[in-house]
Amino acid sequence: MVRRRFEIRTQPGFAFLALVTFFMLYLPIAVLVVYAFNASDSITIWGGLSLHWFRVAWNNSAVQDAAWRSLIIAVFAATFATITATMAALATTRTPPYPGLTFKYAFINQPLMVPEIVTAVALLIVFSRVKVWTGYSGLGYLIAAHTAFCIPFAYLPIRARLESMDLTLERAAADLYATPWMAFKRITLPLLRPGIIAGFMLAFVISLDDVVITEFVKSGGQDTLPTYMLGQIRRTVTPEVNAIATAFLALSVILVTAFFFINRQKN
Amino acid sequence: MPKPEEAEQKRVAVEARSIVKAFGQGSNAIRALDNVSVAIRENEFFTLLGPSGCGKTTLLRLIAGFEYPTEGAILLYGDDIAGLPPFKRPVNTVFQSYALFPHLTVSENVAFGLEMLGRSKDEIKSRVAAMLKLVHMEELGNRRTDQISGGQAQRVALARALAPGPKVLLLDEPLSALDYKLRKEMQIELKRMQSETGITFIFVTHDQEEALTMSDRIAVMSKGRILQVGSPWDIYDKPADRFVADFIGETNFLTAAVVDIANSRATVRLSSGKEIPATVAEGMQPKHEATIVVRPEHARAVKKGGQLSGTVENVVYFGTDTHIHIRLEDGSPFTVRQQNARSEFCGFEIGDPAGIEIAADAAQVLRD
């Protein structure tokens, strides 16, 4: 008798479990998206298909304001995080391993491990002091906080890209009279570009999505889209929130899909 | 092949002086190069030959500037360049993996060095065209590097390294990734390019045949040392020590007593008691017993007579020649290679007694 290899796919109940898991994950989101197109005022009673709530959200100045702020923060935070992460990735991969390197990896990736609420409270305390000292209470705090937790997300794809890159190429550039800066500009950077773009987009999405740290750090009137939605839900909930969430979801899906395509791209 | 006196007059392009390269620290340090000195002459096709791990690539990388020596100096036309970064050295490298820039076209790859040197657009254009012509790649200048074959990539790597007109071209096992036929073609091509451009080539390989057919001179390396430097003829016919003799071609090792030694000539007594004249490797210390080598094609199997005698153990027919494996009376093996004349059988069968006639001047006394 041929002994069959153990395969998780063929175990009884596996397909069922997989289906249930996917349902649990995506059904609520599907419901949310469907009700965004609800014509009625209720988020639970279906009143026919309509783009009414998208229109309401689009014309809501508070939503516009929060969306605009979210974008500004995300653009700045993702940019700063990507630059920092690129430098960190170069510094940690373009060197022979030395004691303490692992510690540096851990240090760079720490924001992934520290509970967000801890960071949030810590930033709240520090920034409230700084606000008193400097009198400045603009978007800088949010941008700084977002940059900090975006760095590891930008770092990972860039480092992966650098590690898979042939070091001989940089050596060849140096051999052909390229100074270290020219070798970086003409060879390393162009080859690293997909990693940098992927890192930027990941950081961008992470920044857009953040609630906890933003909620703690923001000053009055500095709502981002997620904190605005959170505020709305505390009061009367209308399908407007569904509409915002749906638009948000669409944007994230587009960005993450693009991220995967860019990452898959060869050299 | 230039006569030694002529070659001696040529300028020295690259000189390594007492180079030590250690990797690691303290007692764990590994000496990749252990007091290596060598002088490579202008316009020479010079080969560093040795098994993997012998330090040949490390020496090449020290000349290129990818590594810095722990001790010693590297002189390029008399200037010490050991401390200069690679981009300040007028030498270029053809990498084993070719290392073509994947985001640039063939032409852009070839132009890279010239651009970095700040040459004018017109000069770059004509130089790139000339280089692509040299390597027979004129038609493929606009191709991406992933749209060309391995052999073509090899040519582009050569063109790219030659384009800036380096004083010395370093080639790190550039043919090892090619299949046999292409490798043979490129060996001839490389020789042609070297004579056309007049650039000094330093070629690294572990392939002894490649080294013998292409080089003006060869340095045989083992365990971080240079064992012998000489023309292919020197290296093959006058090996200095056991490693060189064994690494290059097939050979017979015999133990013999030194009867007389003077002026790089010696008379040695073989195990059979017969005395034959022999040449002596440079640096050999006079001693009573020594190892001598005789190449299989420098000896003949004979029915009667000869300086050695034994029993035929095996006869292997190779078409162009026949190998006769003989067990000598003292128990050591000896192989004779005989060219097959016409369709005649060599005349020996397994178990036959045979004498061995060693050609005049064929025996060489090794250093160690």
Kindly describe this structure.
The complex is a heterodimer of chains A (267) and B (368). Chain A is an all-alpha fold. Chain A has a single domain (61-264), classed as MetI-like (MetI-like fold, Orthogonal Bundle), CATH 1.10.3720. Chain A has helices at 14-36, 52-59, 61-93, 101-113, 116-134, 140-164, 167-175, 180-209, 212-217, 225-234, 239-264. The radius of gyration of chain A is 23 Å and the shape is globular. In chain A, 33% of the residues are buried. Chain B folds into two domains: 4-237, Rossmann fold, CATH 3.40.50; 250-365, OB fold (Dihydrolipoamide Acetyltransferase, E2P). Chain B contains nine helices and 20 strands. Chain B has a six-stranded mixed beta sheet with strand order 6-7-8-3-9-10, sandwiched between helices. Chain B has a five-stranded mixed β-barrel with strand order 11-12-13-20-14. In chain B, strands 15-19-16-17-18 form a five-stranded antiparallel beta sheet, with no helix packed on it. In chain B, α3 (106-116) packs parallel to α5 and α4 crosses α5 (150-162). At the A-B interface, α7 and α8 of A face β6 and α3 of B.
